[in-house]
Amino acid sequence: MMSEFNQGPPPPCPAPFNMAAHVLGRADQMPDKVALAVLGLSGAERWSYGRLKEAILGTATGLLETGLSRGDIVLMRLGNTVEFPVAYLACLSVGLVPVPTSSQLTETEVAGILDTIRPAAILLGDGIACPETGTKTLDQRTLEAMRDLPPAAYDMGDPNRLAYVIYTSGTSGVPRAVAHAHRAIWARQMMFEGWYGLREDDRLLHAGAFNWTYTLGTGLMDPWTIGATALIPQPGVTPEQLPLLMKRHDATIFAAAPGVFRKFLRDGAPISLPKLRHALSAGEKMPDRVRTAWMAATGTEVYEAYGMSECSTFISGSPSGPAAAGTLGRPQAGRRVAILGDDGPVQAGAEGTIAIHRDDPGLMLGYLHAEDDTAARFCGDWFVTGDLGVMDADGQVTYLGRADDMMNAGGYRVSPLEVEAVLNAHPGITQAAVTDIEVKQDARLIMAFYTGPAPLPADELDALAADKLAAYKRPRGYYHLDSLPTGANGKLLRRKLRPIYESLQ
Question: How much is the pTM?
Answer without folding.
Answer: 0.85
